[in-house]
Amino acid sequence: MTTTLPELQNWVNSVARHTCPDNIRWCSGSDDEYQEFVELMLGDGTLTKLNDKTYPNCYLHRSDPDDVARVEHLTFVCTKNEEDAGQNNNWISPADGHARMDALFDGCMRGRTMYVIPYCMGPIGSRFSRCGVEITDSPYVVINMKLMTRMGDQALKRIEKEGIFVKGLHSTGDLDPERRFIMHFPDELSIKSFGSGYGGNALLGKKCHALRIASYQARQEGWLAEHMLIVGLESPEGAVHYIACAFPSACGKTNLAMLIPPDELHDWKVWTLGDDIAWLHPDDTGKLRAINPESGYFGVVPGTNPKTNKNAYDMIMHDAIFTNVATTEDNEPWWEGKQDGKPAKDWQGRDYDKANGPAAHPNSRFTVAATNNRSYSNLADAPEGVPISAIVFGGRRKHVAPLVFEAKSWEHGVLVGAGTASETTAAMVGEVGVIRRDPMAMKPFCGYNFADYWTHWLSMRRHAKHLPKIFHVNWFRQNDDGEFLWPGFGENLRVLRWIIERCEHRADAEETAIGFLPHPADLDTVGLDISPETMATLTSIDSAQWRDEMISLGKYLKSYGDRTPRALLRQQEIVLDALGEELEKAS
Ligand code: GTP
Ligand code: SPV
Ligand code: MN
């Protein structure tokens, strides 16, 4: 197979001349091809087969121990002007970026096969979908792309018809962290990634294309490409609301997207549209509609068990790829928080020894097709997407942030999003548990200057008349003993229910300086073992702490200089003034 599109053929030819592979393989995306690559990797040890009785068609991949997460310090956005990339990104000029990457790619595929993967982000027939072609020398990337995107023949047909595609060039190189870079050239719709085989570094359809490149295009075209799950919530009366939630990496998107209602809310239904990325477009009626550009999940494994998330637990028991989990004596996958079995070998294949740290890597992941998920929505393939009732921002905050609050307006909601802060997690290389600003959960993924991004968010007012309400949640509040105050997981539906009822103007709330908070009685806690004191803590704010929070946010926003939208600073001043009044009244 080759292609009828000269631009694609020429690009593949020129990459081949430059990287010197032994073979070129155009991927069709068929099941047979998937199996062929699995066999190839079982043969050379890239994959091992897991217990086929209990985990049919499941495979384990152990990555290089120095290649276990995204590398933000090695990720670049190469715009012509440095200011356009913004201080939120690493920058290097396109010419220098290409020169550096081309030197790395020179002859790097000698002795290897070069795979050409046409893919479509979003339903094949949707006008919102965008296509790309990833060239890689990693068959592991190919099988992951097969589970996570609509890839192969169908995508190639669309590319040949449209003539437009994102060019993604990837090589694992020698996995030397000193020779590892992920560079984006948004004006050329191209990506070059070298030296990593892991997740978002290597599966270029995901963060590189569907967030960094897409966010850049979305700004030019009047839509939003966001790090958000999309979930449908069906009430006992049969009304369905779709909400989109932006939480930073490893802060609960996958879990929320497929949550199982607690017994007390058993007559609610939850439908998963997406667990990581949403593309939001204003429609003709002035509403925002969302599609999930992906068709599979690359999810955090640790913590998954029948209690926290039975949907996820069950969906990874067949036809799944595990990366960097531990294994049991019976060759089943094992991870911290599994609540069953014990590890024999750790994620590096060593005999398990507590002294070596966790058995499964904290950023160990599963890859599955979305169709494995029992709660997968049949609207996930709808070309027009689903209408969004509420946008929810959130983070991992031990202190300060209450369980939930509602922004007072779209403009205030943009401030709430821009002000999101969260403790860092194992999803990226670096220290864990450090609070950092992660506006809209897009710090690692926004393909341009954050100040322009906030301006773009504010401008959605002009594109869409009936914008969703905006909320903020925090499932991760802790007491002094480091225990979570809120049970989380399925119980989060209680909070989502209040959010929906606010959208329907049916639920009560108290107005505070930072937004509307539920009174404890406004949240359904029937059957929950939670004290009134804890509920009071979760549903109130400390005005003095919030004043500090707002002052620091003001400094942060201003650090973006003249480009920071005045309207956003104005919102920050309004909240700060209101907090001042609250404090004065209290004293
Ligand atoms: P990325 O794939 O990195 O974008 O992560 P994500 O946002 O999808 O996070 P995910 O749902 O995989 O959750 C990450 C970790 O947080 C897992 O270990 C979960 O068990 C844990 N977690 C998720 N939801 C909750 C919750 O409501 N409460 C608590 N305490 N932990 C949670
Ligand atoms: C994230 O870090 O937000 C992920 C995992 O979803 S990765 O695909 O590696 O970016
Ligand atoms: Mn993510």
Task: Sum this structure up briefly.
The protein has 587 residues and is α+β, with helices and mostly antiparallel strands. Helix content is 30%, strand content 21%. A hairpin with an 8-residue loop joins strand 5 and strand 6.
Q: Can you describe what's shown?
A:
There is one protein chain. By secondary structure, the protein is an alpha+beta fold. It is built from 16 helices and 28 strands. The model has no long low-confidence stretch (mean pLDDT 97). The site of manganese (II) ion (MN) has 3 residues, from loops.
Q: Largest beta sheet, briefly? A: 9 strands, mixed
Heteromolecules bound:
guanosine-5'-triphosphate, sulfopyruvate, manganese (II) ion
Q: Give the beta-strand count.
A: 28
> Given the C-alpha coordinates, what overall shape results?
globular
Q: Level of helix content? A: 25-40%
Please report the distance between the alpha carbons of the first and last residues.
Answer: 76 Å
Which blocks of ≥5 consecutive residues have pLDDT under 50?
none
Mean pLDDT: 97
The helix/strand class is: alpha+beta
Beta-strand residue percentage: 15-25%
Radius of gyration: 23 Å
**Total helix count?**
16
